[in-house]
């Protein structure tokens, strides 16, 4: 049997062309593996058949929607993960799952090489290859788009010359990656930072003014950091994301226009749509404000940022990210309760919080009758809290005085 290449197959131009190109250039058979991450669009049976029509010896479709939601989106929610405080890791959290299934299929189908369609400018080449090197270092990696300098024009020409059955023209303006967690759009006229996104950029969200007179108020219930109900109706993590994608999307929530620092050292403009992701992260973060002790919450805000950076940088399988996962899980023990929020005109406004694990004590917080806070203890606290600064300032004033005397 000929050697086999296990290709991460999206069904688009580059990976469809790659099936034929790899076969011709290397003499190896190609097994195409497509992962259903809730991206919508084409029927996955159509995608499977296209891979076979393009020359794959086998075509596999993996329904990983629940796995993606439970094992990748949920940790992202619990880590309140936003790279540069903005990007909800739409593509970054999907890559390690794709890597996992490619490695599984390499072992199941006798593959010795894994292949992806990433360019040399992006982050995904790192996410894929670091993942492969971690989970299956014995596999070789092939990256034809990067290593052989494919351009979109070359890929289209190759498809036309070799009668590859894919309907793509040179008029397609954007590069798009999407899954149930969100949608990432780049290239085309968006590469000019002064150009505003036009309505054809968006798909998951409506114009924020479209339902201006009909705001949507809802309640999200969490149990130990996990969304378990919306408006009292039980939901799985996947169902929570899907429902909020629809409801928040109708309100124009989750549109992000970002210039981000790529891992490879360049800045890139990306337009994201992540309605469900942004609502869930916002609600979860608010519940943590209610249920996490002050120092734990303060420290976790730092680790949340580090978790996001590790994932963005392709280090999902790293020791540090694994240790952070353990820490995050420990912090979620008391993150249970309900958050009420309003989705309106592109905004998320929290207007209610309720938790049996709350650290908010009304009798301590109130300024009205029933106040149980002993204000007489505050004077000593203030004096001690600022004592070290007071001593340092006294020293510095003395140094200034001494300096002034020496100048006379």
Report on this model:
Helix 4 (95-108) packs across helix 5 (124-135). This protein has 408 residues and is of the alpha/beta class. Helix 2 (44-53) links the parallel strand 2 and strand 3 (58-63). The mean pLDDT is 92. The protein is elongated, with a radius of gyration of 26 Å. 37% of the residues are buried. It starts with a strand and ends with a helix. It has helices at residues 13-26, 44-53, 65-78, 95-108, 124-135, 144-147, 152-161, 237-250, 275-291, 294-312, 319-331, 362-365, 378-385, 387-407, and strands at 4-8, 29-36, 58-63, 111-115, 140-142, 175-179, 182-186, 216-223, 226-230, 233-234, 255-261, 267-273, 337-344, 347-354.
Question: Characteristics of this structure?
Answer:
five-stranded parallel beta sheet; 408 residues; alpha/beta; 2 domains; Rossmann fold; Argininosuccinate synthetase, chain A, domain 2
- For this entry, what is the oligomeric state of its chains? single chain
Distance between the terminal alpha carbons, to the nearest Å? 93 Å
Strand element count: 14
Number of helices: 14
From N to C, what is the helix and strand string? EHEHEHHEHEHHEEEEEHEEHHHEEHHH
How would you sum up the major sheet? 5 strands, parallel
